[in-house]
Automatic annotation (TrEMBL):
This is GPN-loop GTPase 3. Keywords: GTP-binding, Hydrolase, Nucleotide-binding. It comes from the Eukaryota. The keyword Cell membrane does not apply. GO terms for molecular function: GTP binding; GTPase activity. InterPro entries: Gpn (IPR004130), Gpn3 (IPR030228), P-loop_NTPase (IPR027417). Binds to RNA polymerase II (RNAPII). Transmembrane segments: none annotated. Belongs to the GPN-loop GTPase family. It comes from Effrenium voratum.
Length: 277
């Protein structure tokens, strides 16, 4: 069995940064390799060590230049091209061995998860290749400062979850930017009643039944809980990794790999045995 995270979320929510943080955590804290594959043909730059890059197959810039498409049409064209040339991606993962771990950094456009088949096709291919895949949906914590924004974010996460049918984790990114007294606990804890109370106070009464139906649906799908990720807080990174790994059952009984340089000072060693998976 091989393992993978499929990292999704709106443009600019911090997907690539999330991938870099997790790759670094694997390397330093767990001393295991984590290969990150860029699946965004519109990506510009990223901080992780990229194992394979879809832009070697096709980039949105090339599509826009050669076919005179706009950025959104170019992205859809590029992803459909990837779908027709799935052998490229199969080739990139062809040397994956048992217990290998991959992260796929996906494009953000919602239509790829709502009504285009390509992301589902990629997931199906990975599962056929013996990958156990977790869907990781990133939402910028700054965009859930009120209940209606939270509801929009949760519904877009639900779209991806329903479409891909993967074990699913929602991650609130950029928590280092939260002001000290920010009140996001109710969203993190999945307190649907508190969220509905906020919605009742902030939206017109004619939306009351709709809001309550949406709140009920989120509760039914257990979608109102999120893991907070603060890149400056190692405990929060570890918690996030352990949530994701728990849902794909990665890590039990795995030894660290022997090919990492150890820090000179033993005190710098991170206690990877304590990882809570
Ligand atoms: N302070 C802070 N900034 C972050 C964090 N994550 C991302 N950013 C910033 O947010 C911006 C977007 O981050 P990316 O990681 O490129 O986001 P993305 O979702 O991959 O973006 P697209 O690929 O364009 O959809 C960059 O300027 C990052 O430096 C974080 O955890 N903390």
């Amino acid at each position: 069995m091989k393992f993978a995270q499929f990292v999704m979320g709106p443009a600019g929510c911090g997907k690539s940064t999330y991938c870099a943080i997790i790759q670094e955590h694997f390397k330093v804290a767990m001393r295991r390799t984590c290969r990150v594959v860029n699946l965004d043909p519109a990506a510009e730059n990223f901080a992780y060590d990229c194992y394979a890059d879809v832009r070697e197959l096709i980039s949105v810039d090339d599509v826009m230049e050669e076919l005179d498409y706009g950025p959104n049409g170019g992205l859809v064209y590029a992803m459909e091209y990837l779908s027709e040339n799935m052998s490229w991606l199969e080739e990139q993962i062809s040397d994956a061995l048992d217990d290998d771990y991959y992260i796929f950094d996906c494009p953000g456009q919602i239509e790829l998860y709502s009504h285009l088949p390509v992301m589902r096709e990629i997931v199906d291919m990975l599962q056929n290749e013996d990958f156990r895949v977790a869907g990781v949906y990133c939402i910028d914590v700054n965009f859930i400062e009120d209940a209606s924004k939270f509801l929009s974010g949760a519904l877009s996460a639900l779209t991806a979850m329903v479409n891909l049918e993967l074990p699913h984790i929602n991650v609130l990114t950029k928590c280092d930017l939260l002001p000290p007294k920010a009140d996001v606990e109710r969203y993190v804890d999945g307190d649907t009643e508190a969220i509905l109370a906020d919605l009742r106070a902030s939206t017109h009464p004619r939306f009351r039944m709709l809001n309550e139906a949406l709140g009920q649906m989120l509760e039914d799908y257990s979608l109102v809980s999120f893991v907070m990720l603060n890149r400056d807080d190692e405990d929060s990174i570890e918690l996030c990794v352990s949530h994701v790994n728990h849902c794909i059952q990665y890590g039990e009984n795995l030894e660290p790999e022997g090919n990492f340089d150890l820090p000179e000072n033993d005190a710098d060693l991170v206690d990877f045995d304590a990882q809570d998976v």
